[in-house]
Each structure stands twice: as C-alpha cells, then as structure tokens.
User: Which sequence fits this backbone?
C-alpha cells in the first residue's frame, strides 16, 4: 500500500477541478454527497454484463477493446460495429470508449470519425505506442499524432496501452482527454520478470525484454510494477500516483482512467492513489456489496423479523 506521505497531496484539488461524476440535478433538495467521486466504468463489450451494472447505478461509463468485442461474440468488423453502436446508444449520455483498429494514419482518422458518429458520448481509444513493433515503416509517433489530429477535430480521445508516466505525459500534451494505464498487465509482466534487487518506483526505468522494434533504436521501459499479492504489491498503483503527481504539477486536466484490474483490492488502491476513473471487469464489480459478515448479519436480522409475523 502506498504510505500516506507518498500520496500526492494534490488529489483533492485535482478532483474538485474536474467535471462532477455525480452531479445533483437542478431542483433536487438532497445534494449528492459524492459529486467528485472517481468514475467507475464497466470494462466489457457484453450487453448481458453492461445492462445490469448500468441499471443498478454501479457504472457510469463503459470501456471496450477488440479483445473484449471478440469475447462478446463479434466475428467480423460489421458485428463489432453493431455491438459498439448498441453499447453507445444504451449508455448515452454516459461515455463509451471505442478503440481504433487500423494502424495507418488516414485509415485511423476515418475509422475514428465513423465511431465518433455513433453518439456524442463516444470517446476514441488510440493506442499510444506499439506501432513500430507491429510493422516496419510505421512511425513511433503514430499514436501521438492521431491523438493530436483528433483533438484538432474536437473528437475526445483516450490514450490506451499506457505503461509509464512518459507515455501519460506525451499523450496529455498531444491533447488526450483521458489516458489509460494497464495495471494488471504490468503485474503479469513483473511476475515473469521479477528482479528482487531492483527498487520499485515509476521513476526507475529499466530495460526488460530487451527487444529493439523494427526500425527502432534501444529503448527503456519502467516495468518494476507488481500489483496485489506480490512483495511489491502496490507498484502498479504507484504508476497512477506518479501520473497524478505529474498532472498536478502542471495543472493537466487529462483524466487518468485505471484499467486492466485484476481484483477488488486493486480498485481500492487506485482510489487511494487518486485515479479519476477506474474501469473494472463485471466479475469484480458483481461482488462490491459482498462481505461474509454482511451475510451473517443479514441472516440474523431476517431471522429476527420472524417474530414480527406471528
Ligand atoms: O480496458 C483495458 C483492459 O480491458 C485490459 O485488461 O485484463 O486484458 O489486461 P486486460
């Protein structure tokens, strides 16, 4: 767990400067007590999961990606498009995040415009990096350029596949409305590449899996992050805290959307670290109201009501 003195002191100021998550409707007497709470989104493309979570007031947004669409049954671009449109219409006016699948600049822009036309609540997910590794000749700046171009066109973006604060800074600088650090994948990576001699911390940049991308040069990555259950269990969350600190330092309003969550404890750690939004898989969200002592307490209360029915 982050120690109190390590937590960015600017979290509260930052949150109150951002749009309200739970606004109180005009004319309503009882003000919502958590106007600046972190947003909780559903990380799913499956309407069977999204519908009950939305109707219960658990989520106020949805994030999708090609993997989630495939898991939800999409077996063609047309089918993926149909599912994305359905989610966007169902969730409106709450935000829905739809990802670009093209890698070539003009095709990415055209696809983003097409997806954005599904509704005013659509935000376009643009992978911040990974292009140079994918295909020789692709620019390492592709993600940054697309984010900036979409900002020019007044289309909201989320920079996805963020694994360090450098990516988070440059995406914000290009005009990203949101950035999306993948905590669980950092953890998975570290489980495979744990080096106990290294000190955790996002300011430390190590070479892990030293692989030079096609046409690229050497690069360093900050990967010493382990999420819950490791010795350095809160390291993924430290990335959130570091990005919060950098954004606070410069008054950057890009929202930090924590993703790739593996368990409920990580959700709470993200709240401590100051994430603006946390996107959570449905199976984790389904248990938010569970506790074994609540089970026992309810059983006792309900058993005692029997006396009222005599
Ligand atoms: O929103 C991004 C998320 O879906 C990635 O999660 O579990 O594939 O690492 P995961």
Assistant:
């Amino acid at each position: 767990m982050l120690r109190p003195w390590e937590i960015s002191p600017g979290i509260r100021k930052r949150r109150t400067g951002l749009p309200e998550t739970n606004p109180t409707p005009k004319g309503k007497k009882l003000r919502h007590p958590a106007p600046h709470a972190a947003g909780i989104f559903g990380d799913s493309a499956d309407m069977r999961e999204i519908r009950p979570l939305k109707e219960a007031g658990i989520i106020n947004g949805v994030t999708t990606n090609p993997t989630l669409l495939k898991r939800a049954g999409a077996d063609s671009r047309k089918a993926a498009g149909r599912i994305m449109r359905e989610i966007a219409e169902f969730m409106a006016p709450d935000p829905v995040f739809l990802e670009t699948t093209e890698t070539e600049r003009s095709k990415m822009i055209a696809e983003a415009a097409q997806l954005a036309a599904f509704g005013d609540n659509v935000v376009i997910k643009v992978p911040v990096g990974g292009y140079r590794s994918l295909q020789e000749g692709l620019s390492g700046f592709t993600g940054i350029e697309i984010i900036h171009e979409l900002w020019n066109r007044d289309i909201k973006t989320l920079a996805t596949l963020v694994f360090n604060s450098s990516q988070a800074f440059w995406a914000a600088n290009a005009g990203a409305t949101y950035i999306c650090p993948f905590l669980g994948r950092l953890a998975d990576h570290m489980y495979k590449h744990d080096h106990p001699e290294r000190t955790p911390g996002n300011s430390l940049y190590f070479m892990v899996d030293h692989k030079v991308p096609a046409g690229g040069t050497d690069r360093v990555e900050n990967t010493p992050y382990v999420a819950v259950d490791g010795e350095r269990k809160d390291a993924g969350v430290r990335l959130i805290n570091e990005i919060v600190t950098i954004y606070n330092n410069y008054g950057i309003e890009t929202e930090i959307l924590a993703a790739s969550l593996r368990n409920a404890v990580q959700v709470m750690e993200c709240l401590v670290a100051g994430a603006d939004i946390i996107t959570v898989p449905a199976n984790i969200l389904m248990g938010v109201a569970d506790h074994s002592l609540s089970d026992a307490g309810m059983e006792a209360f309900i058993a005692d009501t029997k006396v009222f029915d005599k």
